[in-house]
Design brief:
It is a single chain. About 75% of the residues lie in helices and about 5% in strands. With about 80 residues, it is mainly alpha-helical. The radius of gyration is 22 Å and the shape is flat.
Length: about 80
């Protein structure tokens, strides 16, 4: 019990350190958070996000179709 409590506390401390570095420690002129936001705003990143969203939708449709073919149309899959 005590070991799990210490492990959880150390995990929280580690998470706090990572969050502090991510938001407050500058790497060059900007923090990691600011760098990530600038990268995400680029056209290639936007295109990647769009393609990932499309691929996700195709996977969801495939899984729903498989579910319906195995368990029937009324087996708990709600249409989107």
């Amino acid at each position: 019990m005590l070991r799990r409590l210490i492990s959880a506390a150390l995990s929280l401390v580690g998470l706090a350190v990572v969050a502090y570095v991510w938001f407050f420690v500058p790497l060059g002129q900007r923090t990691l958070h600011e760098h990530a936001l600038r990268i995400a705003a680029t056209e290639p990143a936007q295109e990647l996000g769009s393609e990932a969203r499309d691929a996700t939708e195709r996977v969801v449709e495939h899984v729903e179709d498989e579910w319906r073919s195995r368990y029937g149309a009324d087996a708990g899959v709600t249409p989107r």
